[in-house]
Structure formats: C-alpha cells, structure tokens
Amino acid sequence: YRQNNLALNNIYIQPSAAPLPDVVSSHMDTVRAKRDSPGLSSDEMNQVVGHLDLLAEGCDEDDVVTFLNDTIFPNSKLTRPMDLPSSALMSQHLVPSNPVSPYRVTQPEPDRLYGYSGNPNAAFTQPQLLAQATLHPKIPHHSAATSQGLRFPFFAIEFKAAGGTRGDLWVATNQCAGASAACLNAVEQLNTSLREYSAQSVDNLAYCIAIDNNVAQLYISWKEGNLNYYLQRVDAFLLSSPEHFKNFRNHVRNILDWGKDGRLTRIGDALDII
C-alpha cells in the first residue's frame, strides 16, 4: 500500500531520523513547549497505569478509545470553536489522486478528526464562510472536509488495540498518511487564492497520531512543491511510562491550542483578505 497507493500518489512516509524542513522543525518547538496548566496528579497517574494494566490483559479498539477520551483527548466542550466528528469519511476532492497512477488512496476515515465548525459564527464569520465558497473555481464546498461540514482539519487520530484483530500501528500510519494529505489540500487551496492578493500564505502543516494501548506515535505532515506530501514521525511515547504519558498529553494539548488559537486566527485573517 505504501509503495503503490501512497507513493504513486505522491504521498511519502519519511524515516523518523530525516532532517525536517526549518518551518516544520520550528513548529515542533511549540508543540514540545511546557504548559502552565496543571497536569495529571499522582493519583490520576496511578489510575492511568492501572487502567493500562487492565487493557494489557485484553482489549478491543473501543476500549482504547474510551480510555484515551477520558485521559488524553478533551471533549468537544473544551475545544470550541473546533469540531471533532468521529469516524467521518473525508471529502474525496481533498484526497490526492495522480491521474496517471492506476492505484488510489483509500478515502480517509480517521477515528477522530479535529477541525473547525462550519456553523455560522462558531469558528468563522458569515463573510468568512462566504469567502470559503470562492476558493475553488468548480467546488464551492472545497473547504468542507467531511459531509458534516468540518472545515480545514489539522489533527487526525487513528486508534488500534495491541493484540487486537483490527490492524496495527503500521496500518494506522498508512491511514494517517492519507488523512493528513487531505488536511493539507484544504489549506493549499486557501493559499492558492491568497497568492492573487500577494498576501503571506498560511503555514500548511497537519498532525496525526497512530496509537494503541501501548504506544502513541506522533506524526507531522507537510507539502512541498505543490505536489509531494510528506509524513514523518517526530515522537513516540510509551503510555505505561508516567513521564511519557504526561509528555504525550502535553503535546496533544499544545497541538489543540495551536489549532484553536494561532492557526484559526491566520486562516480567518486570510479569508478576510479574500
């Protein structure tokens, strides 16, 4: 699948030791920054380790999702104005497709996908929503990444269960590659429209996580030369290690903060120009 369906549609999974482009590397400094907000207490961490021990005795993907929703990924009320539909097919027009390749990228359906609400005055003003309809000459709904209208997604999560029957982290990483490329294409079209106004482009980056009840792998993705999509692992966390678990939780919260603050502001400013 990586050699045919991904690479022949210009999606490449980089070695984790490969040097990152400067703009990508500098962004990782933000994700790795320490947080002022209180983390998990020692009692909460003990509960986490106990829960992981139970999962190790046998679990399925739903068990892993329930556990991580309670401990790592905040609920939607805490992430407004962001939206996070679960298991939503991403729009086909955002999925990379090389016309000369006989192979196709499977339409992404990440287990969790963070982006922005398309409801009026949730993440975007009415004029900003109207501007989105003008970004693509033939597809007025181009910025809608799912049938629910999720806009400009930036963070996809693929859950697996270690020892389960629904696949492993290799499969999850392949799924992340397709989902992140679709995320990049949404902002790429915005930047294409911005060039007509000689305005500064929006940094086009997306994050993905492939995770089971043992390990979380964090990936960042970017696009080069308007053609090639790259996905690279930038961190891995052993969930049973309290230090790793806390760091992983901080990384996730920092990515979400970037999404609902700096990134959303930049996209809104770009839409105001258009």
From TrEMBL:
Lineage of the organism: Eukaryota, Fungi, Dikarya, Ascomycota, Pezizomycotina
A Pfam family: DUF7924
Membrane-spanning parts: none
InterPro entries found in the cross-reference section: DUF7924
All copies of domain DUF7924, residue ranges: 57-271
Identification of the protein by name: DUF7924 domain-containing protein
